[in-house]
Structure formats: C-alpha cells, structure tokens
Amino acid sequence: MLGTASSTTLQSSSAEVASTRLVFFIAGFCLASWAPLVPLLKVRAVLDEGVLGLLLLGLGIGSILAMPIAGGLVSRWGCRRVIVSGTLVLLAMLPLLATLSSVTLLLPALIIFGIGMGALDCAMNIQAVEVNAQSPKPIMSSFHGLFSLGGILGALSMTAMLKLGFTPLHAVLSVVGVSLVALYRSLPGLLQAGEKQSAPLFAIPRGEVLFLGALCFIVFLAEGAMLDWSGLYLVSHQHLQPELAGLAYATFAAAMTAGRLLGDRIVAAAGRRRVVGAGGALAAAGMLVSLATDTWGISLVGYGLIGLGCANIVPVLFAAVADQQSMPKAVAIPAMTTVGYAGVLVGPAFIGFVAHLSSLQLSLGTVALGLIGVAVSGRFVRR
What is the pTM of this model? Predict the structure, then answer.
C-alpha cells in the first residue's frame, strides 16, 4: 500500500513538472511567433513608426492589466482554468493579427492578445512556484529555460515558414495547431488547488514582494534593452552591417537559454544569494564590456555575458517569493510579476528618453548600474 502511494505521488509530481514546462514553452513559442509578423503588419496596414509603437504599447498594457487580475482568478478557479483560458484567448487573436489591416480593429486585438498573454504568464508562474516548492531540488530555472527555448523555436519556425512561401495566416494556423496539441498534453498536470480560496483581484506589492519585484524590474529592463537597443547600438556605434544586427539579441538569447537549462544545477550548488549576486555582477560586467569596446565582436561577448548573468536571477526571485511572509502567494506572485514586467514595457522607452537627452551609450550605462544594484542586493534574498 505504501509503495503504491509513493509511486502515485511520484508520477503526479512528474506530470506536474512536465505540464509546467509545456505551458512555459507555449508562452515563449506564441510570443516569439508574433514578432516576425510585426514588419508584415506595418506594411499591410500602411503604418508609420509612431502608430505602430502605439499599437505595440496596447499589447503591453493588456498584459500588465491582466496579470494582477489573473492572480485573483487563480485563487478562485485554480491554475488550470486560467492557463487554458489565457492560452485560448491569445491563440484566437493570432490569426486576426496575421490578417487585419485596420488600426481600429488591430488595437483591440492586440490588447486582447496581451490580456491572454498576461493571464497565461501570471498563472503559469503561480503553477511553477507551487511545483518548485514541492520538489526536493530546484527546478524553477528549467521552466524559464523552456520559455526561452520556445521563443527561439517560435521565431525560427515562423521565419522559416514565411521564407518558404506560407501566407501569414497559414503560418499562424500552424503555430496555433502546435500550441493546442501542447496545451492538451499539459492538462493532466495543471494544478486545480486553491479554487476555494478568496483573494483580491488586485493587490499592491509591499514588503519583501516589492523588493523582489524591484529586482525583477531591473533584470527585465536589461532584457528589454537587449531586445530593442542592442542591435541598434552595434550598427550606430560599432558600424556593424544592419542586416547582421540580429546577432546582438540572438547571442544574448542563446546564452540566456543555455544558462537557464543548466540553471537548476547551478542554483542547487551555489544557492539563491550567490546566483543573484554573481549573476547581477556578471550581467553588469557584460554590459560594461559591450560599451567599452569599439569592436562589435567583443560586444557580442558582452551580450553573451549579460544573457548568462540574467538567466537565473528571475527564476530564483520567483522561487523566493514562495517563502516570503509579507503577502499571500496568490496575490504576491501576480503583484511581483506586474512590477517586474513593467520593466519590459517602460524600460525601452526610458532608455530611449535618456539616450535622447544624452547618448545611447550613457543610457545603457544606467542599466549596468541597475544590474550592479541587483548584485549588491543578492545578499538580502531568502536562502
């Protein structure tokens, strides 16, 4: 009898881990599949950069608004319903984003797409925190590693399909089909616990949650800087050919993915504080190396160091929020997620504003200072 019970518990835990990895993969896969559609949308809808920027802001606003509400819904419905609902919403919007050409229709579609992504992101992180807390060894980094891996595969597969002559709609429908199969396979291990609990639909982060959220904000700010400004810096300051500008983010993303896939072993061996402290220092050093050289190849090495340094900080911070006592987990996780992801939303605009007043080199230098702050703050993260 005991042997049977232990086996059932082990199988259940394995199913939960596998399902969590799948939904992280889905999120990264769908989000990255959208990126190659942006230039096509700009041409199809005849948009200038200003209007396109406002449309893309709608996606971020939808995500930020959905995250705190999703946490309250998880406490009422459980992770499974919110994950499934959020995924279906964003998958329903992808075909529209591949075909619509009217700004008045694109804006609500992007906001709804952002709402689906925000709900999925929040619920899957709550699932990840719960599953990681029940594991005898750290597994949080592997979840985020699958998000990064899904992002790489999503961008590559969408680009390949478009290159082969697929219409945007047919390419997107292929992404939707793969995602639906992955979602179906994830259902057995998605958590339903907490359905009877009550929690507010919105909570302002406080205490330790605010501290962890602020560290997340800085790391996501660095990720946003790599996504939106690294290639431009190599072209404008180090004279890299524009068609090779994608090497900047590709180097960063590849290093981050590798670091996360190896991250659980690193966290188990070094502990949370060292991962945050050393990771912040490594990322700051990478940023400073990239800014101190006139050679774009050396800058790529710096971007790789930023990816490795940042790779496991956010997974560690999400694991740490499960141990804090300032707020219940059901509201702490979405509150921290909202603060953190605000770095992706406002960070690139902040960098652009500082660059306009001074220089892009100086504005990216402020990101390095923030990462040094993360390194110093690592000593205060719960063990």
Answer: 0.81
> Count of CB atoms within 10 A of residue 39's CB?
10
Read off the CATH number of the domain in which 276 is found.
1.20.1250.20
Residues 35 and 182 in one domain: yes
The domain total for the chain is 2
Can you tell me whether residue 47 is helix, strand or coil? coil
- Residue-wise pLDDT tens for the chain (383 aa)? 333 333 334 444 789 999 999 999 999 999 888 877 887 888 888 887 678 777 878 888 898 889 888 888 888 888 999 999 999 999 999 999 999 989 899 999 999 999 999 999 989 988 998 898 888 888 999 999 999 899 888 888 888 898 898 999 999 999 999 999 999 999 999 998 654 555 565 667 788 888 999 999 999 999 888 877 787 788 888 888 876 776 888 889 889 999 999 999 999 999 999 999 999 999 999 999 999 998 999 999 999 999 999 999 999 998 888 778 778 777 788 888 888 888 877 777 778 788 878 888 898 999 999 999 999 998 888 77
One-character DSSP codes across 206-260? -HHHHHHHHHHHHHHHHHHHHHHHHHHHHHHHH---GGGTHHHHHHHHHHHHHHH
Are 126 and 252 in a shared domain?
no
User: 126 lies in which domain range?
Assistant: 13-189
d(CA 175, CA 157): 9
Q: Examine the domain organization and report whether 32 and 87 are in the same domain.
A: yes
Same domain, 105 and 233: no
